[in-house]
Amino acid sequence: MFATPAFAQAAGGGAAGAFGSFIPLILIFAIMYFLLIRPQQKKMKEHKAMVSALRRGDQIVTQGGLIGKVSKVKDEEEVEVELAEGVKVRVVRQTIAQVLNKTEPAEKA
């Protein structure tokens, strides 16, 4: 019915016991950051750089699987892509998945 002295001494942990219970939670968050969040941010940054560097003549693949050549860079949001001769479509820049062939910039005379 009464607590023995050994149990009574173990019950008092104070602030050290509270901090000790948060250590696994902090470690889990750190592991999740380095394994999931950081690589995803790096991948998003690379994709943004690839999309912003698009120019006329680049051969691209859209997320829908269409392969075409950039015929005109309209604005910050969309580009015009030629899928076949005479078939041009407007594509949102963020839906471009991959650049297959990059054109070289023209040399300044």
From TrEMBL:
It is a single-pass membrane protein. Belongs to the YajC family. Keywords: Cell membrane, Membrane, Protein transport, Translocation, Transmembrane, Transmembrane helix, Transport. The chain crosses the membrane at residues 15-36. Pfam families: YajC. The SecYEG-SecDF-YajC-YidC holo-translocon (HTL) protein secretase/insertase is a supercomplex required for protein secretion, insertion of proteins into membranes, and assembly of membrane protein complexes. While the SecYEG complex is essential for assembly of a number of proteins and complexes, the SecDF-YajC-YidC subcomplex facilitates these functions. Part of the SecDF-YidC-YajC translocase complex. The SecDF-YidC-YajC translocase forms a supercomplex with SecYEG, called the holo-translocon (HTL). This is Sec translocon accessory complex subunit YajC. It is found in: Cell membrane. It comes from the Bacteria. The keyword Ligase does not apply.
